[in-house]
């Protein structure tokens, strides 16, 4: 039986085996329970004291609100504490290792933040006259130069605001290039089975038909299957390299050549660029368009849906179709090209991705990161990220099935499967066990080509000591699951919320607050 305390929230129910886990408040030491804001505040109270509004004639043409809006009133300390407590319930890269595969959750250097907060950048309005913000355009132009140089491509569109937005930008350019050649009939985009979910979603959103390309036993794109499928209806391919199994696609050049010979274009999902930056130039592999997640490879913050940035680099063939606007340098002066120009660049632009120029704050952070690392430092980023992932792979392969470990080293992420866990145990039990150990779980059940996948990406910013601690915890929970420890089935045991029905939460989220019925109190 649980009780409702003064503010109307329910302390957590003790779990089996717990004797005195219960506290009066529901708090556990400094882990504070936090009710909804509607449960703390009430519509009768308010934190502000405004003077009565002078009565005047309403200009709302009869559309004035007739009922109260029902928002809870809180004092300032109540409001501050509410949001601060909520923020403490969130795991963050500043708290510890965040091994989410495919996400490149690396440390966000504070120098980046300092630069992005300089008032000359941070307070700039997007409609500031070009002559009054030459410095900002120089940042965009310099970053664009680095991105083109690092990828060996021909041009870059800076404006897309995330990886998926960049994918859309890339495939729209492919569509525009095909249409310009009168090839409207090319409607199929081939996407390998192991692709990130955003790839087929982007292709479908842009009006293409999506077709799968199977993977080989070794987790790579099946080149023969791809070649067989090429034809006059195929617009191109979308390939992730390094792919989502954490493997480099060694046939990339052969894939590009085959696609080009068949009249199509090659889109590369560059979200995993971190593993190869400074080592491999996608332009040398025949790629026509690729997005770069500044919030992955170039350390700008992400998570919580926060602003990302997904510039897209283009080959010479696609450059005329790239979106507007772009920054150009004439002598010492930077200017913004907002219209199609007769020149080589953007002569047949497909249009715009956004109203203005993109994510200025992210550009400043990414350029700061690039300049503070230098070309040699960026190459070392890739090497260290690959080294760290292989350290985890080799430290775990005797405990967990590592499907591609025999075919050689991985790139920046290590993949494991649930093969070898006893009947009734799965990836989710290992992941939830890691929460009890104080680690954010790895990416689970993705990519789909590996059964019960666990995709671990440590990134280069973790020290050996941190990796050793993580490996110790990971081995411990994996061994307990392998040994059939039933307690693993209900992990996490120490988190404020226990094992949740995640499917229900995702499919039927409760988004509307309902006043609790008084009867519930007697439950
Ligand atoms: C992160 C990621 C994306 C999507 O990038 P967003 O910035 O989240 O839109 C696409 N593909 C892969 C492989 C990724 O890891």
The biggest beta sheet is recorded as: 7 strands, mixed
What Rg do the Cα atoms give? Answer: 26 Å
Q: Name the helix and strand elements from N-terminus to C-terminus, one letter apiece.
A: HHHHHEHEHEHEHEEEEEHEHEEHH
The residue ranges in which pLDDT falls below 50 over 5 or more consecutive positions are 1-11
Q: How many beta-strand elements?
A: 12
Label the overall shape: globular
Number of H/I helices: 13
The first-to-last residue Cα distance is 7 Å
Bound molecules: pyridoxal-5'-phosphate
Strand content: 5-15%
- Going by helix content, strand content and strand pairing, the class is alpha/beta
Describe this structure in words.
The chain has helices at 37-40, 76-88, 110-116, 119-122, 134-151, 163-180, 198-205, 223-229, 252-261, 360-396, 427-436, 464-482, 502-507, and strands spanning 155-157, 188-192, 209-213, 234-240, 265-269, 289-291, 312-314, 326-330, 333-337, 414-416, 443-444, 454-456. With 523 residues, it is α/β, with parallel strands linked by helices. A hairpin with a 2-residue loop joins strand 8 (326-330) and strand 9 (333-337). Helix 5 (134-151) packs parallel to helix 10 (360-396) and helix 11 (427-436) packs across helix 12 (464-482). It is globular and about 70 Å long. The N and C termini lie close together (7 Å). It binds pyridoxal-5'-phosphate (PLP). Pyridoxal-5'-phosphate binds next to helix 6. Pyridoxal-5'-phosphate is lined by residues 102-103, 162-164, 196, 198, 240, 244, 269, 271-272, 293, 308, 310.
């Amino acid at each position: 039986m649980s009780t409702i305390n003064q503010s109307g929230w329910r302390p957590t129910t003790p779990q089996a085996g717990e004797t005195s886990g219960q506290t009066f408040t529901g708090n556990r030491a400094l882990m504070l329970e936090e009710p909804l804001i509607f449960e703390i505040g009430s519509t009768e109270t308010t934190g502000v004291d405004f003077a009565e509004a002078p009565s005047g004639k309403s200009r709302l043409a009869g559309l004035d609100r007739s009922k109260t809006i029902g928002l809870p009133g809180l004092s300032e300390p109540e409001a501050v504490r509410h949001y601060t407590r909520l923020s403490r319930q969130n795991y963050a890269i500043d708290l510890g290792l965040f091994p989410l595969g495919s996400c490149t959750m690396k440390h966000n250097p504070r120098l980046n933040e300092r630069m992005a907060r300089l008032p000359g950048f941070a307070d700039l309005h997007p409609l500031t006259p070009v002559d009054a913000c030459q410095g900002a355009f120089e940042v965009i132009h310099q970053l664009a130069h680095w991105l083109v140089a690092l990828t060996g491509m021909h041009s870059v569109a800076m404006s897309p605001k995330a990886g998926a937005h960049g994918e859309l930008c890339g495939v729209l350019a492919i569509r525009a290039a095909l249409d310009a050649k009168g090839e409207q009939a090319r409607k199929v985009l081939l996407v390998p089975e192991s692709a990130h979910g955003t790839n087929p979603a982007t292709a479908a959103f842009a009006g293409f038909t999506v077709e799968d390309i199977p993977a080989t036993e070794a987790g790579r794109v099946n080149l023969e299957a791809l070649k067989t499928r090429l034809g006059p209806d195929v617009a191109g391919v979308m390939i992730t390299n390094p792919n989502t199994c954490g493997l480099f696609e060694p046939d990339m050049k052969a894939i590009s050549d085959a696609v080009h010979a068949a009249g199509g274009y090659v889109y590369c999902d560059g979200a995993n660029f971190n593993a190869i930056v400074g080592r491999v130039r996608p332009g040398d592999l025949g790629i026509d368009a690729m997005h770069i997640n500044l919030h992955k490879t170039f350390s700008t913050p992400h998570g919580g849906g926060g602003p990302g940035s997904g510039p897209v680099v283009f080959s010479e063939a696609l450059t005329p179709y790239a979106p507007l606007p772009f920054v150009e340098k004439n002598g010492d002066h930077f200017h913004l090209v907002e219209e199609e120009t007769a020149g080589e660049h953007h002569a047949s632009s497909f249009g715009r991705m956004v109203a203005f120029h993109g994510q200025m704050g992210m550009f400043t952070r990414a350029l700061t990161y690039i300049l503070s690392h230098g070309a040699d430092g960026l190459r070392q980023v890739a090497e260290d990220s690959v080294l760290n992932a292989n350290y985890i792979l080799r430290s775990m392969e005797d405990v967990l099935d590592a499907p591609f470990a025999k075919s050689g080293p991985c790139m920046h992420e290590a993949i494991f499967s649930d093969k070898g866990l006893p009947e009734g145990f799965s990836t989710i039990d290992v992941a939830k066990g890691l929460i009890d150990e104080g680690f954010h779980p790895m990416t689970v059940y993705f990519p789909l080509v590996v059964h019960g996948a666990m995709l671990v990406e440590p990134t280069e910013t973790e020290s050996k000591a941190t990796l050793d601690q993580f490996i110790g915890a990971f081995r411990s929970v994996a061994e307990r699951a392998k040994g059939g420890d039933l307690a693993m089935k209900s992990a996490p045991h120490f988190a404020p919320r226990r094992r949740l029905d995640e499917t229900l939460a995702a499919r039927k989220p409760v988004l509307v607050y309902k006043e609790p019925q008084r009867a519930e109190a007697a439950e």
